[in-house]
Amino acid sequence: MSNSTANSANGVILTTQDGVPLKTSIARALRREKLRALMLIAPLLLFILLTFAMPIVDMLFRSVENAIVSETLPRTVKALKGWDELSGELPGEPVFAALHEDLVPAVEAKSHTRLGSRLNYEKSGMSSMFRSSGRKVSQMTDGDYKAQFIEANNGWGEIETWQIIKRFSGNLTDGYFLNAVDAHHVADGSIEMKPESDRLYLFLFWRTFYLSMAITVSCILLGYPVAFIMANLPLRTSNLLMILVLLPFWTSLLVRTSAWKVLLQQQGVINDILVWAHIISDDNRLVMINNQTGTIIAMTHILLPFM
What we know:
Layout: H1 22-62, H2 68-72, H3 74-80, H4 93-109, H5 112-120, H6 126-136, H7 145-152, H8 159-167, H9 175-180, E1 183-185, E2 191-193, H10 201-232, H11 235-246, H12 253-264, H13 269-276, H14 292-303
Antiparallel strand pairs: 1-2
């Protein structure tokens, strides 16, 4: 450092031997260290972005992406803009003519089946409607396309079909998320729950949550006493118990699952012992596998070491 420097309190700037301000020199050194550290983690960061972050972003985009309707039926979507879906009447002949113009190239590209599969999420039967219409669209003659489409499949004569096509003609949709919570859009655009007979996902969500809580509580009830005992035993004994706790990690998950099937099935070891001990009769063997009971028992055994 230069001999001519004084402390900064006297207004003199501290410099290095080559005359560079000390603050600038330190900043450069820190910047080089940060760049060196970044270069070291760059391969791992790139790997995580490519294999973890990007697939998640792609799936999130796909969960709202809905361009297939407007791409497959561009003329139909444009013609439907002038149709009032709450009028109680089917679209006019120009819409059906536009549908014919769109379906001819769509059938050649085989994209009409993918569109039918997409709309089938919103109304059952849409997939078969597009497939059957695709087979007959080349046989249609000019004029009165409305009657020809309805003759090809009665679904084209239902107002709900056209309401769905118009409602999901945008490039983005919330339909997938609504389906996930057993809800859907109705004709006026509002959101309602599906009929009771069509609800499935909320029941599965709550059942999964219930099983998760039951397994967690079971792991706590079994794991806490073991952990308490191990913490208060001599080191040699606690190490031996730790080996026994970690033993499941040394066996294959498939082996552990198969072992529980052998133990819990109706002709399994546990039922045989209960019958032999006359606790239950041979005709009343317990069903403890392929149900909630078996799931809780097996998952508690698998997850207990993590607790």
